[in-house]
Amino acid sequence: MQQMAVSPLYVAAELEARRRWSNHEFGEAANKARAAADIARQDEDCDSWRSMTILQAESLLAAGDFEGCAAVVRDLLGGDGILAPQLRAQAHILMAKALQGSGLLDESADEARAAAELAKDEDDVEINVMARQALIGALADSGQVEQAWAESLVLADAISAEVDDQLVGKAYWVIGNVAFLCNRVADGLDYHELAASTFSPARNLGIWARFNTASAAMRLAADIADADTLRCIDRAELAIDVIGGSDEDRTLLKLNRGHWNFLAGDPAAAIEVLGEILPNQDKATPQILGEVCLLLGRAHDAVGNGSSAREYLLQAVDHFEAAGAPQRADQANVFLAALG
């Protein structure tokens, strides 16, 4: 495809795709971006085609369609023409996130490493930071927390004044997550505090919601059920009520609320909330289902339902193994053994 003047038809399609993205209508944004990409292809406008293909993949990812996102990125990476290192790194980052969402954590880490390798010599510091974030997330989810912490220190060094505040916040966010997983609770709280100082609900309510959801989850995993944790849960629920959110967003809210109820000494309420997730298992990743079943097993044990506790803990082991998270599977087995 040769570089051509941008057509009015393409401009209209691109504007509509970006409008849908701004309105958090991610499924429609993906459809509109694909339509714009098709117009660009017909016009032999290579740059615009790539731009809209990336937006289509980003929209599918935001909508929770991980397989769809991965398919679009594969077409981009395997298509005609040479991709610049920066764009190729972006594609590998999206692929890493899509595979992570599908529970394919080893493959996700491989894609993230490819992105980090492409980005390390690039002038674009933000792409380097995004690649490191994806790699850290995949390593952490697969239980390789010490490697994830080592990469977190590399990421911390990569942060500079050149990086956008929102991206800096996301970097501190993921570093804090890993600190929690490494039982560096004080470091986790500090990094999440740094992240919170960069985010604003007025600037981006979606990021505000996701950060508070994730921060609450990390605090709960560290058995921190204090007023700050509850504030994170309430903020996230309120924000998702406003913007809508994806199925995964709502599932994570229920997981946090159920975990809070359990730690607050109300396992019956935890069972009720967490039980709402299981009828829609196709809308949750194996990793999330593992966490849900682990908590349900512990909650049923707390109320004296030993047989149900065993059933859910066995399911948790299966889900964690399917997600490539052996350390979490081992933890579920510890609770199983404690049942006697």
From TrEMBL:
InterPro entries: TPR-like_helical_dom_sf. This is Tetratricopeptide repeat protein. It comes from the Bacteria.
